[in-house]
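tool_call: predict_structure(chain=1)
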Amino acid sequence: MAFNRDDVLSSLRGAGPMRMADLATALRVRKSQVPRLRKLVAALVDEGVVVKPSRMTYAVADEPRPRRKDAAEPLAVGRIRVHPAGYGFVERDDHLDDIFIPAKYRGAALDGDRVSVYTWDGYKGTEGRVEEVLARGRAKLTGVVRRAGRSFVLDPDDPRVASSTDAHVAIEDLGPARPGDCVLAEITEYPRQRRGGMTVRVLRVLGEPGDPRTEVAKIVACADIPDEFPDDAKAQAARTPQALRKIDLADRIDLRDREFLTIDPETARDFDDAICIERNPGGGWRVWVAVADVSHYVRPDDALDREAQIRGVSVYFPDRAIPMLPPELSSGICSLNPGVDRCAMVVRIDYDDDATVRDTGFAAAVIRSRARLDYPGVGAALSGDFRGRIAAYRKWVAALRDMDALAQRLRRRRMARGALELELPEPKVILDEDDPLLVRDVARAKSVPSERRAYELVEEFMLAANEAVGEYFARRKLPTIWRVHAPPAETKLAELAAVLEGFGIYVDEEEAQSPRGLKRVIDAVRGHPAESSLMFLVLRSLTQAVYTTDNIGHFGLASDAYLHFTSPIRRYPDVIVHRLLKYHLHREGQASGGGGAFRPPPVEELEQIAAACSGYERRAMEAEREVVDMYEAYLMRDRVGETFVATIVAVTHFGVFVRLDEPFVEGLIKLENLGDDFFEHDPLHMTLTGRKTGARFRIGDAVRVELIEASVQRRQIDFRLAATTPAGPGGSRTPRRRDDRGRGRRGADSGSRRKRKAAEGRDTGRGGRGRRRSTKGRR
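tool_result:
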């Protein structure tokens, strides 16, 4: 039965306090509609129209509070995501549920545009009509040039753009391009009505379609990621000394006698941080975390600083990196390379034997790293394996074991306070060392337990340093750029609770609003046959971590004062934090590396920088994921027709997503490739069930699949169900499609992992030290 807010309020007024189950019964709500009812009630609680007399009951408020500014209004604003079939969803600025936009009501809006929408309650949720395009979301397109009569047109790569226009995308300026070339083009005329024409001019030729280098160039260009440094930044980098001078040592403590070690991925070329551990005579440990002093070389508003602000972060692809700083700094004078003197900002943390922080200190310093170690090597050394090149690690094994012992204690303490740890497997693209066009494999990242322990070792000390600096600013009530992570919205927790209940996992929604409460949910999910997929659902319920000057704490880390300090080579907010710390150390008479030369910018300016860097980080993550998707399709393109055993990792109204173990890739089985049946989607239990055969597909099920297409251009892998399956009934015939407009955030043809992983990067996985390609989360 359909219902709306008035129905809910009427039932509550008539019956008094009600439990959710009783309310659902009173409204005659079908089981599949319970998640929507939970979300609607949670929204009414947020508004103040409904109250909770007890933890499990709801009632109409006697005097409703004034309507919240983020409550649903008839006119909403947000960014539209368009499906190739024409319909779309608007992701609202007020963070309420997405708005479904039927194709006929989309107007001239293109995918990514910022729009205002008139909304109403539809049968399955909020629907709307685009009233106005407020800002265009894209200025460039990529595609292939084609001759059309006496003129030339562009066939866009993105099917969402191709479906938005009946007319060809006309080319007004061909430039050096020829038919068949893949090009980057600038939009000079946008559609003025639904399915109206577009006009572009070619900016440059990218290469041959399907070539990985061309596809990466497309992704970088469309994301507007700067990949070349301007002349003034290059000139400043070239002038930067590549060795310390006597003047560089002024106003610094000398820690060159300490045994600092860097621990990084095998392929790393820039080293932000180094660790030194010492036993205190009275018991406990003293840990020094040294971080590259980028702010010594990049000064406010110089050429390098302006370019770093525009980039925000370094971007990491399997074949290359796009650094925030030129190589003269990123892998040169700023990098904590072994055996050379380097400027650093140092955090000193003294611990008791039980890993309780006893004291902290901060200073500008000069250090000399003793060795450049890597994660596999550290993992092997900790497990006692010193074969081959790891023999060189024997010299440092005592320090590494001390670091590991303390890191594990810190980890246990952090978990006890409620820090969230979502173990989500990530793919790692392995390219041939000599031929970047040869993809050797896509494997599960950090699958070796000893290597994972090495990551944890470094992660704990980076998190500890970030928190220590955060506490410094918090205690003094000083403005800075914080890394914050808001608690999950009640509506998201209600939706999560409804789904997990279908898998036998109970969620106390009120308790789950605290880190410890949600950690208990994660602990209940751990070990479930569908653990990976359910962890992803937990991740989707969380908000995204952002930069801001308003410290609301970090929910995922259960931290009251957290910021980013340890990766200034690859993150601009860290550079700002370094400058601010230096300024305040100078005022306190501490070694600050010339901190008196800095002046803190106004809080309003800091907030603008924070907001911009949050956007640049999202831009980088999306591009990194898209490149991985492309390489997965490139690896699989020659294996069409082969069969594989796969696991269902997500179930949607348009099909199921499956993941292979070897190679570690993900793809989609559309409904028509599941079997000859009419499939019903149950979002509550995450299943697709055939009406005729009773065949049921659920996350965690093992299935045998056949690869039918791997599109490098669309970054998508498509499978069909093979004739036999290892688990559960199934078929190999073609089903009839049911009449379903689709309620997914993106369509089935817009890229497999990009759609399923749209909510990732929510700062609850690993990543205390920065944006390494092999690192999962961005805390």
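agent: The chain has 17 helices and 33 strands. Proceeding to next step.
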